[in-house]
Design a protein that fits this description.
The structure is a single chain. 31% of the residues lie in helices and 20% in strands. By secondary structure, the chain is α/β, with parallel strands linked by helices. It has a 5-stranded mixed sheet. The longest helix has 14 residues.
Length: 296
């Protein structure tokens, strides 16, 4: 996780607010009053007094759980307002750290690929397993890590690909990935398959292609792989976890480029790391996806 000195300063400011400062200001040792840019009343938001959070539709387990509702309907879809699942719980924890109650949070459905495109956003921050890349950071602000990730290969039990034990043994097979994701890049850069990787607009479409035998393997982040193999597929399996192409990847919150809110969000994430909140959320919602063979 990248923690900048400025972000640490923001944590101090947040702590001051939590300890009872009022009016969006703090007192310096000399007695002067300084505005706290991360006080709730000083945040620049899409809608004043409301924190607007974006995510993809459908919203998947184990990142979102509970009944469907609002815009999020259909099989394997979950309503982010439930505060259940890793990313829903993470979003509400960040919201609380910034001073917002649950009833002051609104969710909006935004396609994954649109989240980090340059230009105005209809959300204050967005989360849907968006991995940090320098290319994405050119068009949007990407926060510090809220989860360090790995990619994994999902297949059907009893197929030839399910017997692979090394990356080299994965190369002859056909693969799919959601378009615009780092899963697509990892498939090409790490597996280097002999045939072109098929792309799909949604993970649902990619999963259906795997069921139909159009592809042999599907590359997704590890928690999603666990859920697909054990819940969405009656005969699914995780072939293994892929090595990261250039060190660890991590999920970032996405914000409009140049927003002052970004440093406040990074401060909130730093505080949630420091007090163990993010670790507790990860243990609760992702601990089942803790074991799978690592492919070399």
């Amino acid at each position: 996780m990248r923690i900048r000195a400025f972000a640490m300063a923001v944590v101090v400011a947040l702590a001051a607010v939590a300890c009872g400062s009022s009016g969006g200001s703090t007192s310096s040792p000399g007695g002067s009053t300084q505005a706290n840019p991360c006080a709730k009343s000083n945040l620049t938001l899409v809608t004043p007094g409301q924190l607007t959070i974006g995510t993809d539709n459908p919203a998947y387990d184990p990142f979102f759980q509970g009944p469907t509702g609002h815009e999020w309907t259909g099989q394997f879809n979950h309503d982010p307002y439930n505060d259940q699942g890793f990313e829903s719980a993470t979003a509400y924890a960040v919201a609380q750290q910034l001073g917002f109650s649950k009833d002051e949070v609104k969710w909006v459905a935004v396609p994954f690929n649109n989240s980090y495109k340059p230009g105005p956003k209809n959300f204050d921050f967005y989360l849907a397993q968006v991995s940090y890349t320098p290319q994405r950071a050119q068009g949007a602000d990407l926060s510090d890590s809220y989860y360090d990730e790995q990619e994994a290969v999902v297949a059907l039990q009893g197929t030839d690909i399910s017997k692979a034990t090394t990356v080299a043994e994965l190369q002859p097979f056909t693969y799919g990935a959601q378009i615009g994701t780092t899963s697509y890049d990892v498939t090409n850069d790490v597996i280097k398959p002999g045939s072109a990787v098929q792309t799909f607009n949604t993970l649902n479409a990619a999963l259906q292609a795997l069921k139909n035998g159009q592809i042999d393997g599907l590359v997704v982040d590890y928690p999603t792989a666990y859920y697909m193999a054990n819940v969405q597929l009656s005969n699914g399996t995780i072939v293994g976890v892929l090595p990261a192409p250039t060190g660890k990847e991590h999920f970032s919150l996405v914000l409009q480029k140049g927003r002052s809110l970004t440093s406040c969000v990074n401060g909130a994430l730093s505080a949630l790391h420091a007090d163990g909140t993010l670790a507790q959320i990860q243990d609760r919602w992702l601990n089942q996806a803790a074991h799978a063979p690592e492919l070399q």
